[in-house]
Amino acid sequence: MLALFDQRAQEEAFATRPFLAPAPLAPAGRGVPTGEGVRLTGRWSWATGVMHGNWIIVAALCGPDDGIYPALALVPAGDIQIEDVWHTDGMVATGSNDVVITDVFVPGHRLVLVSDIYTGTAPRAGLHDAGTYRWPMVPALSLLAAMPALGGAERAAEVYAERLSQRVLAYEGVMQKDKTIAQAHLAEARVRLRARTSSTTRCSGSSATT
Fold first, then answer.
1. Does domain 2-130 have CATH number 2.40.110.10?
2. Taking the model in full, what pTM does it have?
């Protein structure tokens, strides 16, 4: 995502290594035009990794009231406030706290239009040789989101198969693997997983050549 910003923004962000930037992308902020940029104000939830970030990428509605457009803004961590609201039983280590930005100036080179990212036509998309930087965002994110879900489903099928081979049905005295319905459920799951895997592979190959 950073590679789609203006080259000056990339140079600024990568000047400090490692570059760590959470990216809560709900357009929960407002950027009011001023000079060569915007004055940004807003509050964003679930900024995963923000406790260790040195920058943040947030979405905001920018422009004048009669011409608002969604954009991503790159903001240094020193210009944000972290609200400690992440008190969960699970995933507590992600530190997904809220972020508050109050009237911070963001120069134009640290803004990029969401519409350009979605279509793969961001100004800096041609700066790098790899076609990866010109993928439309929505299908790319869909593939990324599908991977852990597909991997979890594959493991669930493996666990179910292991359970079938070991479990004795209490009131029948037979192995569950010998029950037709159990094998039918396992077979259906495996067929569905193969179909999903094949579909995901085709989509990935298509995107990579676009």
1. yes
2. 0.72
